[in-house]
Specification:
2 copies of one chain form a homodimer.
Chain A lengths: L2 H34 L2 H12 L7 H16 L4 E13 L5 E7 L2 E4 L2 E3 L11 E8 L2 H5 L3 H4 L3 E4 L10 H6 L2 H13 L4 E5 L27 E4 L1 H13 L4 E5 L3 E15 L4 E11 L9 H20 L6 E8 L7 H12 L3 E7 L7 E7 L2 H8 L2 H4 L6 E4 L15 E7 L4 H4 L12 H21 L2 H10 L1
Parallel strand pairs in A: 5-6, 6-7, 7-8, 11-12, 11-13, 13-16, 14-15
Antiparallel strand pairs in A: 1-10, 2-3, 2-9, 4-8, 5-9, 10-12, 14-16
Helix pairs in contact in A: 1-14, 2-9, 9-14
Chain lengths: 468, 468
């Protein structure tokens, strides 16, 4: 009976000491990232020496080799490639499009094929245009008004929504499902307003799907810039009979061999408890994929390096996973989860960075409530670094397949305001990434991984039991 | 005795209703700013049609006329110019500088005169260089090592400090006081590493002061780019005898007439309680002053417009003040406070935006504790807009002279990570400002002004008394 108070006194002082240690360790991590980080240099190479890394492309292969060799230099316990077959879609020659207001009188349009789209016939497609704001509106339109026409999906992203990802979520079905739905009504092609909150001249590509549409019923699908969407819409109000021409010769080829790139520090006490941190190595082809998701890859690589650099000897296994094919297939994420399950691996935590390399604001989490509650208790440790936003719900596409009743999945949440200015467009380039913002993201990720490695979730179970 | 509980029940329900109204009103304000804001268009004109607005320049005069006429279009109760004499410093011809490693063998250097500096002789200055990290180090250096030389202040901004403003504060005395101090030891000129966290080729100007140094003892002072600072420092280690050449023909002219631009909505209930919101209209001359501080001006103008647009009829007087000459004299801020005092005006709250047009993160406050405590109770109203950071200490230079024991002064705190990439340099330009980020700042300012107008601080006194 006498032991209890003493136990609590000891516990109390341990907590204080632990608190101070953690504060100091986070300070060390942020300092190391901001003064001695590698993420920005790695991103420079990935973006400027390699460039866009579409799944199945030579560049994607080069990125696999490069990141593997860089991880090997870090003297981790293990670095390996995990084979995965990926789709190979190629854009072909630059697309060509215009609005025809009268025979011979045309206005050029900035257009790009959507990823996965079929080509137009060699001579292109010229047809009248019907503008709709949504797939629902399409379904309520008489078939005769659609047949033989190009369907133009023009619902803009809502500027009044603070999270641009939420605004994106409210629009992207036009891009993803538009062609599949329009084909049912006899449309000959679809064009979609780019998922971009700004008015500019850049078309933004992205994945689309034909679903179960038979091959001979598939129609070409493309995006036009927001300026062109505004212009086309305005011109249609004046002349609903105007014609639109587009030509693209993209193609879906056979699946090819590719890889997830994985590096690991094996845990010193609990090697079977795995923590992963990652991003996706593939990107679209129009820019160099600096924000989406070169940033997430180099940040994840640097998490392991910064842990070592700041003297952390992880108790649990920390793995960096650079997933292949997030953009048009998610094959890397699915394969990783499949192999992991086959091996009976136990993931306790997975963190993805796939929302751009901007100033970090916080994290999103999904997983058991009591585990998230434990993480939320660390919030004050992050406040000196202006990390305030810990949100429940959502994590990352690549780690999604790891979801089960026990694991905690998390996503880094950077400031989202500029993200869709660059997303999937030709200006997703290295110059749009700020070194400090990127490094703050790296440090924020490293800090959370450090805390989870140190405390795990078993202790929480234990503490929970004590309280119960 | 029976009345008390009923009173509290009524109070309780009022608070709930007020809470919901405020939530709705903030939603309206943010929506209006993001979908119908004017700040970005105004900034476009100020930056691209007028450009850099150095105090006393023609551009500064054009900016006064432009903003006055735009404020007049808003149908406020009153718009006026407040005369203020300002210093007029001119850069003259572009500066020219190089490192001479051997006679005839030179390396060009990106250099700009600091604001307020004297010119070099017509033929320029060529001299040996002594590098120091601080004014303290200078003071501990033997006079013979300094005499006849150019003093090179090379202390970098600390990358490990999260707030870049704090890192700036730790360096800027080299720029401001360097020439004054070096002149005492017989130096012939000073050059300072630009206040920039990045390594790039752009020199950053900014104010310097000779203090009480007699005119004939004043030495030219200039900034060199961070890349040049690194190069020069490296070369000095190899050859301490190398020479540095600089030539600049800047000049301080006589003071000239200029103006603060002021617009006002007169309060419907408490016209004598004044709330001001502002930025400074002058800028440096190398860029177009978009972030510093075109952004703060257009945001402040839009605060009054958005209040009207969202149906607010202010109880108190809301004034927008575009201060002249923050950068090299603060004459506008001083004059405004002086005139205000003469008139016996009572300012209850002043908010300045002068930290760039980036994503807003929160506010800094100075003033009586219990008033700030009241503002902090509104924090949760701002959370949906990712405004988390309410800090005690600091506000804005222009509103500083209003400080007394009663007023609350506040500064908008945007994300600071990119600010010093552009600050006082030729890349402080419109393209570096993101429309949404600017508009979110405007909405955040408008929301706080709305709440302060609605509740004032008298009610707080009242509530405080009830509790006491």
């Amino acid at each position: 009976m006498n032991i209890k108070p003493i136990f609590f006194v000891i516990l109390f002082f341990s907590v204080i000491v632990i608190g101070q240690n953690d504060k100091d360790q986070l300070r060390k991590i942020y300092k190391a990232s901001l003064t001695d980080g590698k993420s920005y240099n790695w991103l420079d190479y990935l973006s400027n020496e390699i460039g866009g890394r579409l799944s199945g492309s030579l560049n994607a292969e080069l990125a696999v080799q490069y990141t593997k060799s860089e991880l090997e230099k870090l003297e981790l316990d293990k670095v390996w490639l995990q084979p995965v077959m990926v789709p190979k879609w190629v854009r072909g020659n630059p697309e060509f499009a215009y609005i025809e207001v009268a025979p011979g009188k045309t206005i050029p349009v900035n257009l790009c094929a959507l990823g996965g789209s079929v080509s137009t016939p060699l001579e292109g497609i010229k047809a009248n245009v019907i503008e709709v704001q949504s797939i629902e509106q399409l379904k309520n339109t008489h078939r005769d008004s659609i047949k033989g026409k190009i369907v133009f999906f023009n619902r803009p992203m809502r500027a009044d929504i603070i999270s641009t990802f939420e605004a994106y979520g409210g629009c992207v079905n036009q891009r993803y499902d538009g062609a599949k739905e329009a084909a049912k009504y006899g449309a000959v092609a679809t064009i979609v307003r780019s998922m971009n909150l700004r008015l500019d001249d850049l078309p933004h590509t992205g994945a689309m799907s034909y679903g179960e549409t038979p091959i001979n019923k598939r129609i070409p699908s493309a995006a036009i810039s927001t300026n062109d969407a505004e212009r086309l819409s305005g011109m249609l109000r004046i002349d609903p009979k105007l014609k639109f021409f587009l030509k693209q010769n993209c193609k879906q080829l056979k699946d090819v061999q590719s890889y997830n790139v994985i590096g690991q520090i094996t845990g010193s006490q609990y090697p079977n408890q795995i923590i992963i941190v990652g991003g996706h190595l593939d990107s679209w082809d129009l820019g160099d994929g600096s924000h989406d998701d070169g940033a997430g890859c180099v940040q994840s690589m640097d998490v392991l390096r910064l842990l070592k650099l700041t003297g952390v000897r992880p108790k649990r296994t920390i793995r960096v996973v650079l997933f292949m094919n997030e953009e048009n297939g998610l094959r890397g994420g699915l394969e990783y989860a499949k192999i992991s399950k086959q091996k009976g691996e136990k993931h306790i935590f997975a963190l993805e960075s796939d929302s751009g390399g901007f100033t970090p604001r916080g994290f999103s989490f999904e997983g058991p409530d009591y585990k998230i509650a434990q993480i939320l208790k660390w919030k004050n440790l992050f406040e000196p670094y202006l990390i305030h936003y810990f949100r429940i719900g959502g994590s990352g596409a690549d780690i999604g397949p790891l979801k089960d009743k026990d694991v905690v999945l998390a996503g880094l949440s950077p400031d989202s305001q500029r993200y869709f200015d660059h997303h999937h467009a030709s200006n997703d380039t290295f110059d749009a990434v700020n070194k400090r913002e990127l490094e703050l993201g790296t440090a924020t990720m490293t800090s959370l991984v450090y805390l989870i490695d140190k405390y795990g979730f078993n202790n929480i179970d234990f503490q929970k039991k004590i309280k119960d």
